[in-house]
Each structure stands twice: as C-alpha cells, then as structure tokens.
Amino acid sequence: MADSPIDKHRAAHLPWFVAVAQILGLTSVVITGVWMGHYRGGYGWDGTSLQFNVHPLCMVIGMVFLYGDAILVYRVFRNEPKRITKILHGAIHLISLIISIVGLIAVFQFHAKSKIPDMYSLHSWCGMLTFIIFIVQWVMGLTFFLFPGASVSLRSWYLSLHVFFGLALFALAIGTCLLGIKEKLLFSIMSTYSKFEPEGILANVLGLLLVAFGVVVGYILTREEWKRQPNPEEQALSMNFKNLTEGESPDSP
To answer: Is 249 within the bounds of a domain?
Structure first.
C-alpha cells in the first residue's frame, strides 16, 4: 500500500531528527573528553587517576552514543535489505560492547591499584546491571534474529521483549551516566561545586546533553510513520520460512 502524502511529508523529517541526535551524541562525547582531558589531567593506562579517566569516556561512547546509534539503524536504513540492517545493528552493538569492556577494565584496575572498594555505590550497581543485561540482550538478539533456527512464532514472541529491553537499557545507561557524573563531581570538587565551578558547569551541561540525546532517540523510535516496513520480497520470504519451519500451508490463515 502506497504511503499517503502526509506520511511522506512526515518521513522527510526523519533525517533532521537523526542529525540532531548525532550532534547531541557527538557533543556529549567531546565534552566528556574535554572534562577528563582538560580538568582531570588527561588519559593513561598506569593505574592512576589518568586510567580512571578512560572509564567515563568509554562508557559514554559505548553505552550511550554507539548504543543509541545501533538502535537507530532500523530507522535510518529503512529501505535497505533487512539482513544487512541486522548485521549493522549487531556490529555496532559489538563495538559498543568492546569499548564498554575497556572502560570497565580501566576503572576496576584503578580501584585495585588505589585500594578503593568496588561495587558499593548506586552508580556501580546500576552500571553493572546495565552491562550484564546488555550482554544477555546482545547474545539473545544474535541467537534469535541473526542466526537461522528460531521459528517465526518464537521470533515474534521475543521481538517485543527485545525492543522493550533495548529501550529500557538505553534509558538505564543514561541514568547510570548521570549518577556517575554526580558522583565524580562530589568526589572531585565537592567544596567548590556550589560556587558554579567551570568544571561543574561543564559536567552539568554534559548531563543535559545526554538526556537530550536520549529524548531525541526515543522520539525517533516511537514515531509510527518512521518504523521500518517489510518490503514485499521480505514478506514472501517470511511466509516461506514460516511454512517450512511450522508446516503451515500457503492457504493457512
């Protein structure tokens, strides 16, 4: 069925919202880099605070920016073959996972060398919960949607859960970043934070940008007219796959 002129007009707005999301996401990454690089002394891998600085940068890049881009793939590449879109979605998530692992290693090694206790704060609890669910979500998505074997009915059942947990994880990742920003500021500049310290203002702006990035991505994902629609070839292949795996005849309802 052809799209109405109104739907086509609304679809034309999608690139603008995607561009805004990219600007917000990239700006968040740059500000995180400036915060850790300029105000916190830079980066290193020597067990000192310079190694800790790798942690927030990696988590903002991996668990927020790249994660948000991965879930936007099905909107940005609405007219591409579905399998290519699936591979790109999974590949971006894999890169996000690798970068996030580097960030986690950085902070745990820093804590070990500095003899700082692990996993006692709300930030660390939320962060570890997010990371564990992210791994489970990625493995389940790979198993159900990229590799053959799962039936159509099983994929349909899991799809709604996959979408829900994907959005929930994105929101949880941003929330965890906000907790981390607040925690870092209280540890670093607690005595001057209330005096509108430039570092504190920069970190507050970072928090607002992360929230704005999440809101724009969420808006794009929830717009019905921007959802990816299967093309006729994909629908035919889906029906053939269903017939082969579930033994249904072409005339079944």
So the answer is: no
Instruction: Give the CA distances from residue 88 to residues 19, 31, 127, 177, 220, in Å, rounded to whole numbers and listed in that order.
Output: 19, 27, 25, 25, 18
Q: Domains in the chain: how many in total?
A: 1
Query: Is residue 103 classed exposed, middle or buried when 0-12, 13-18 and 19+ CB atoms within 10 A define those classes?
Result: buried
Instruction: Answer yes or no: is 88 within a domain.
Output: yes
- CB neighbours of residue 20 within 10 Å: 16
Structural domain range at position 220? 16-227
Q: Look-up: residue for tokens 């979500």?
A: 137
Three-state DSSP at 130 gives: helix
* CATH code, domain with 63: 1.20.120.1770
Determine, yes or no, domain membership for 11.
Answer: no
Output the pTM of the full model: 0.87
Tens of pLDDT, residues 35-56 = 999 999 999 999 999 999 999 9
Structure tokens at 247: 């033994």
User: If DSSP codes are grouped into helix, strand and coil, which group holds residue 227?
Assistant: coil
How far apart (Å, rounded) are the C-alpha atoms in residues 226 and 74?
9
Nearest to 54 by CA among 66, 64, 42: 42
What is the chain's length?
Answer: 253
- The CA distance from 169 to 128, in Å, is 12
Q: Which pair of tokens denotes residue 28?
A: 């968040």
